[in-house]
Amino acid sequence: MAEATHHRPHPTTKDYWKIAVVLAVITAAEVWVTYIPALSSVVAPLLLTMGAAKFVIVVGWYMHLRYEERLMKNLFLIGLIATPILFGAVLFTFGVLIGD
Amino acid sequence: MTRRLRLLVLLVLLVGVSLLVSCSGPDRAELHQVVDISMPQNSLEPAGPEARRIDGLWQLVFWIAVGVFVLVQGALLFAMFRFRERKGERRSIKQLHGNTKLEIGWTLVPAMILAVIAVPTVSAIFEMRSPPGDEENVLHIEVTGHQWWWEFHYPEYGFTTAGEMHIPAGRPVWLTMTSADVIHSFWVPPLNGKRDVVPGRTSHLRIEADEPGVYLGQCAEFCGLAHADMRQRVFAHTAADFEAWAAAQARPADLPTEGPALAGWETFKIVCASCHAIDGTEAVAELAPNLTHFASRTSFGGASISNTREHLRQWLRNPSSLKPMTPELNDVSSGRILGMPSFGLTEQQLDELVAFLEGLE
Amino acid sequence: MSATTHEARGLWAWVTTTDHKKIGILYGGSAIVFFIVGGVEALIIRLQLAVPEGAVVSADAYNQLFTMHATTMVFLVLMPAAAAFTNYFLPLLIGARDVAFPRLNALSYWIFFFGGLFLTMSFFLGGAPDGGWTGYAPLAQQVTETVRMDYWSLGLQILGVASVMASINFITTVFVMRAPGMTLMQMPVFAWMAFVVAFLLLFSLPIVAVGLFQVYLDRNLGTLFFDAFGGGDPILWQHLFWLFGHPEVYVLILPAMGIVSEVLPTFSRKPLFGRAFVIFSGIAIGFMGFGVWAHHMFTAGLGPVAEATFAITTMFIAVPTGVKIFNWLGTIWGGSIRFATPMLFSLGFIAMFVIGGLSGVTHSIVPADTQQHDTYYVVAHFHYVLFGGAVLGLFAGLYYWWPKITGRLLDERIGKWNFWMMFVGFNMTFGPMHFLGLNGMPRRTYTYPRGLGFEFWNLIATVGAFLIALSVAIFLWNAIRTRTKGEIAGADPWDGRTLEWATSSPTPVYNFAEIPHIETEDAWWHAKYTEDDEGHAVARPIQPDPDLAPTTDIHLPSPSYYPALAAFGMFLIILGLVYLPLGLVLSGAGVGVTLWGLFGWSLEPLTKESPDAGHPSPEETTEESDGSEESGDEGAEDGEGDEGDAQTDGEAGNEAGDDGDEQTDEDAEDAEDDKGDEGDKQTDEGAESAGDEDEDEDDGGES
Amino acid sequence: MSTDAAVAEHHDGHPDPVRTRKVAMWVFLGSECLFFGTLISTFLLFRTRTGDGPTAVEIFDIPFTSASSFILLMSSLTMVLAHHSAERSDWRRSRIWLVATALLGTVFLAGQVFEFTEFVHNGLTITTSPFGTAFFVLTSFHGLHVAIGVIMLLGTAGISYAGRIRPNEGMNVEAVGLYWHFVDIVWIVIFTVVYLMQV
Ligand code: HEA
Ligand code: HEA
Ligand code: CUA
Ligand SMILES: [Cu+2]
Predict the structure, then answer these.
(1) Rounded alpha-carbon distances, angstroms, from residue D167 to C351, C505, C619, C644, D23
(2) Average pLDDT over residues B20-34
(3) Which of residues 17-56 of B touch C (CB under 8 A)?
(4) Could you identify the atom of ligand 3 that is nearest to the CA of residue B221?
(5) pLDDT band for position C8 (50/70/90)?
(6) Distances (CA, A) of C119 to C76, C77, C78, C110, C156
(7) Is C22 exposed, middle or buried (0-12, 13-18, 19+ CB in 10 A)?
(8) Per DSSP, what are the bridge partners of residue B167?
(9) C530 Ramachandran zone, left/alpha/beta (phi>0; psi -120 to 50)
(10) How does strand C537-539 pair with strand C529-531?
(11) Distance from CA of C635 to the nearest CA of D (A)
(12) Which of B77, C62, C123, C529 is the S-S candidate for C446 at Cβ 3.0 to 4.6 Å?
């Protein structure tokens, strides 16, 4: 019955392994950049992007969110989007964001 | 049943009121001794520039709110009367589902009203929070909130007092505030709004009184058992009187040389000196109010008790009988002081201590 | 355990019920009991403050009283009262036979029940919480010799768990259980407001949950979250509390607004004016409610930028709220107003809530608020919105829906006494507090000295409080005498508009003999009336019969004592956590009991011996993972069983429908199906309009 | 894109159990976002408040944490494979993957226990500094979620092994799976923000 809601074909076992490899590579890259002094200036944005990438891959493919109807996407995304906005504001009042 | 109800109401009122009046306690503060106005803590009778500015904003918002109130309640009452269903009558009603123009209207109009209020609000926020410029000759006072009393330190004069703050009228005062334990809030309504006093942080407040006089306030952030008794009295003087007062306070205490007062001083050194300081003597502890010129104060116990001999004796005999405190929970190591213990002093020791304290002009 | 549904009798039937109606009544009953508890606390407060230097209670007792008064009224009266109406009427209003997860629903109630018991118990176990309902740090961490604030943090924690479970349940119910054809926008407004409230709780409770854990850890394990002298930050607590606290106040008012939006049209014989705008303003309030929390911290020193920002966001919440008020006026305008008791309470709600709202707007003027903050002016504000708003609204709901719940009408004459007594007493009590606050009387003070000019208004307020008490007593009397003397209501006593009136009173266990098919909002009204060409209401020649009996047997979830058992286990857990380290033994036992309950639950079929071969009952397999206490997960887990059950119901309904139907009706059905489709396009737009931009981001992530 | 699903639902006039439980689970996960968001924000506020205790740079052992993070990440693979097999009613393989996932989860937990003891030895406890407080509380709450997940996984496998196989079993695996993957993505954030960005 679940299939009824799916428009794109589910990934195959092989796909899942491929995705795992991608995740592993990104993780390795994450660790790697922290050891490169040359990158120290841009390390934060780099890490954030790579972390976000892993996040999206797991949610989208392993959790099949990209195959779900919008309803479920948004139920999750409301919480996901709200969190950084609210706590961005909180940390701002503590001067943490400006601080560094 | 109507009559029965009326009776019930009456009964409840009678019982209640009589019960209450019977259990009203003695007057500890005796405010009539220091102020003659009917509402010495009123935010609607500003006595200084800051409070007056706030009052101006309040007036604006208040009257706008009154306008909205009259319109809405008026419409409500009119509709209730005009469209009421009379007995037996059964009109068939036109099924109105809505009107987009109206919706847009009553979305925009309130929004515009609020925009009007927002402008002076925002400017006031920024201006009232700005520190004093160098050209202003402000008086600096360092305020520390304690459970449950206020400590005032005058850096320019180098003395410390408690509960009662003296300021020169017509001259801005810049308070630098922090807390020794939990969050308190410094508030003297006729002079300015309140400002929280947070442990580990310093906050600032500017107050100024136009005229000499007495202005009352009290701690406005719930800080535990005796929050209600953490009061403050602000005495505004002419410049000359203020300087005279400050000079007097800056003097070290003149200790008694003979008589019961001297005996009292001996007891003080043994019993009281572990918490209280008296400038110019070996009593230097700062856990409790500085008593150097205790007798010059109109009140004690967090400015909640008028400074009379009877009160003083009762206080020294059993402090918690005049002001709720939990000294049994004091923990000097962690700096948690929740009240003055009862030391079980003899009547003679009490007399001597009272004599000593009354000597601290 | 009895094999068939509804065999259990008496108390046991209540303990084991999974029927959303019975659970609703349980919530309601608890709320009324706690209202008396919190009210008596309030009366003692008023006695103490009636005269200066009052000596009715000690300062220590007073601090416990106002803390517990607020905690009780907010978490044990208003929230369960709203939960009561939501539980009982949400399924009825959307034409469903139950909520999505009946046993999770029972678990929510029992956790709430034990949470309330836990908090109230504290009075007899070394003193009740005394740090104010806001539990500000570091005061709440200062005295660890007493367990008072441990009761507070753990009590609120478990109540929060109950509310999150209930929210997940209600949200899922709205999304999947609506009667065929009913689009989200066709849902009755009360259902809509309950829906918004569920989201507010869902997203605000986890924040304070973390805060409460931090309070508990600071007090018991010496962590440093709020310890200023250890490097922590007491202001952090204020953010975490109010990030929850402000959405919470809209959690308290929106259900009342929903009730009023149902009552006004019925008693004006007119549809709700600007229905869509009332709904969307509710959603807007929900969203904006998350952007104003710091207006409770205007004296804490956030810095001018933050203060200005929050001042503005706060003010503008007045706009969507105003939209609601004006549309309510538009609803009664041109109607034919019957001043029945529910209507009186609703009109009283509007009048009083506007006052409270306007004082709220004066709070948003930061400099003015530095005078008002923590004074009786604030106390006046929030009692006008909480009592004048929420409580009056809930009383409107009580009088309106009582006949549907009990089958008998509450007495109208006594009802009017109840209203006027409460209305006058309320204004006598809280009106004067505006003056007291502006004249300089701070809140949370156990007494005040003579000579500050507070004497007169305080005495008036105390007298008013006793009038309110009297009015509450009158209500209780009305409720009791109605059980025997009350006039038999019949299915539709008020000439109602929504589906709950389309079935007999009291509601039969199966709710509806046939699951209705929905084409419009106010479906029941449209079954009774049509509009002529000028739009005047005209009664249909053939009136529908709400008292039909079901033509097929309907399978409902069986009773189960496992939810109550699991909840009791959780009660033991937190009770043990209060008394570290020895209490851990008790907590351990609690974990055992909880697991026992959840495991038994997971192996117990939801509907016993469902004869419906077409639907192999899958329950046994559904809840293996209940070793956890993950509410959401349980939700997911036992959903299957319930749904399997819902299916049988649905079909029973449909078959019955089709059998009896004529040719024409079948066409009608097709028509409905189409409606259903576009209905659902709307559905998703409706629900997701908020999240569209999120949508894009997500795609971005994919590509 | 949801309409067809919804239509499918409305044509037979009753809800779809799989969808119901997925909706509930996603709703719950949306709520969990704010739970961990609060914990992580608390950490961000306190990350530099190390008092006289050790700082992040001094204490963190990135290679070790990278390894355990990798293990948790791979448990998502085994989890999705378990679900994949279950959907194709290949229960035997599904069970194997479930147990594998639980194992990886347990290894991760063991790693966390080891890490904690190391930190305590090096002078960082829950009471040393706000940094320590926030770090331990955040990671422990995540660990608690992992532990609960492990129990759920073993339960699922166990009951499937007990032969209680139903058409919707696949759905149960998916529900547990959603929860498990969520716990994993939370760690993805923690690993990046709490560990890597602090050194
Ligand atoms: C049901 C609960 C409820 C509701 C609905 C509200 C509604 C509002 N509240 Fe209230 N509030 C509380 C419960 C509630 N509040 C509680 C419990 C506290 C104290 C907590 C504590 O400290 O213990 C509090 C405290 C509180 C404060 C902090 C005060 C302080 O401690 O210093 C503030 C500050 O801005 C505030 C503002 C508002 C505003 C702007 C609204 C708005 O939503 C009101 C909007 C409504 C209207 C404005 C009326 C109708 C509108 C119109 C008729 C349109 C035209 C109007 C205009 C153009 C102005 N509230
Ligand atoms: C829904 C919320 C709600 C409700 C309904 C009420 C209702 C009342 N409240 Fe409450 N109140 C709060 C929420 C609420 N309050 C909150 C949040 C605070 C802040 C606390 C804090 O600062 O932390 C507060 C604080 C508060 C204070 C300030 C305390 C202080 O700051 O020192 C006062 C003082 O008068 C007060 C009074 C009252 C009164 C008289 C009622 C009355 O309306 C109560 C009326 C109800 C009854 C009287 C029912 C009892 C019925 C009977 C007795 C009938 C007899 C029948 C039998 C016994 C069978 N409240
Ligand atoms: Cu100090 Cu209240
Ligand atoms: Cu608020």
Answers:
(1) 57, 40, 12, 12, 19
(2) 83
(3) 17, 19-21, 23-32, 35, 38-44, 51, 53-54
(4) 2
(5) low
(6) 10, 13, 16, 14, 8
(7) buried
(8) B236
(9) beta
(10) antiparallel
(11) 6
(12) C62
C-alpha span between C479 and C341 (Å, rounded): 14
The two structure tokens encoding residue C91: 């399924």
- Put simply, the chain A residues between 16 and 55 with a CB less than 8 A from any chain D CB are 16-17, 19-20, 23-24, 27, 30-31, 34, 43-44, 47-48, 50-51, 54-55
8 Å CB contact between D190 and D40: yes
Match 């006593």 to its residue by tokens: C493
What does the alpha-carbon distance between residue C650 and residue D9 come to, in Å, rounded to a whole number? 12
Token look-up 């508009």 returns C497
Distance between alpha carbon C12 and the CA centroid of its chain, in Å? 26
DSSP label of C339: -
Q: How confident is the model at residue C34 (pLDDT cuts 50, 70, 90)?
A: very high
Measured CA angle at C346 (ends C340, C347), to 5 deg: 90
Residue-wise pLDDT tens digits, A9-58: 678 888 889 999 999 999 999 889 888 888 888 888 889 999 999 999 99
- Identify any residues that bridge with B178 across adjacent strands, giving them in sequence order: B144
Structure tokens at D61: 């052992």
Question: What's the predicted TM-score (pTM) here?
Answer: 0.91
> Do residue A2 and residue D171 have CB atoms under 8 angstroms apart?
yes
C12 contacts chain B (CB < 8 A): no
Q: Is C365 in the pocket of ligand 1 (CB under 6 A)?
A: no
How far CA C185 is from CA of A32, C394, C515, in Å, comes to 52, 24, 19
Protein residue with least CA distance to atom 1, ligand 3? B184
* Averaged pLDDT score across all residues of chain D: 85
Q: How far apart are the CA of A27 and the nearest CA of chain C, in angstroms?
A: 18
The dihedrals phi and psi of B93, each to the nearest 5 degrees, come to: -95, 140
CB-count exposure of residue B43 (10 Å: 0-12, 13-18, 19+): buried
Cβ proximity of B276 and B283 under 8 Å: yes
Give nearest CA residue, ligand 1 atom 52.
Answer: C322
Q: What is C214-275 written as a DSSP string? A: HHHHHHHT---TT-GGGT--HHHHHHHHHHHHHHHHHHHHHHHHHHHHHHHHHHHTSPPTTH
Q: Provide CB contacts within 8 A for C628, sequence distance 6+.
A: C598, C634, D148, D149, D151, D152
Q: Say what percent of chain C tops pLDDT 70.
A: 85
Identify the H or E element spanning B63. Answer: helix B49-82
Q: How far apart are CA C142 and CA B334, in angstroms?
A: 11
Report yes or no: C513 and C504 within 8 Å, Cβ to Cβ: no
- Provide the terminal-to-terminal Cα distance of chain A, rounded to the nearest Å: 50
Q: Following CA atoms A44, A49, A55, A58 in sequence, which dihedral angle do they give, to the nearest 10 degrees? A: -140
The string of pLDDT tens digits covering residues C277-324 is 999 999 999 999 999 999 999 999 899 999 999 999 999 999 999 999
Distance CA C482, CA B291 (A): 68
Give the contacts of D110 (CB within 8 A, at least 6 positions apart): none
Q: Give the type of residue at B89.
A: E
At residue D14 the predicted structure's pLDDT band, cuts being 50, 70 and 90, is low
Q: What is the ipTM of this complex?
A: 0.94
Q: Specify whether the CB–CB gap between C341 and C326 falls below 8 A.
A: no
Of residues A71, A73, A75, nearest to C698 (C-beta): A73
Location of structure tokens 């919707």? D168
Nearest atom (ligand 3) to Cα of B145 = 1
User: Is any ligand 3 atom within 6 A of the Cβ of residue B219?
Assistant: yes
Radius of gyration over alpha carbons of chain C, in Å? 26
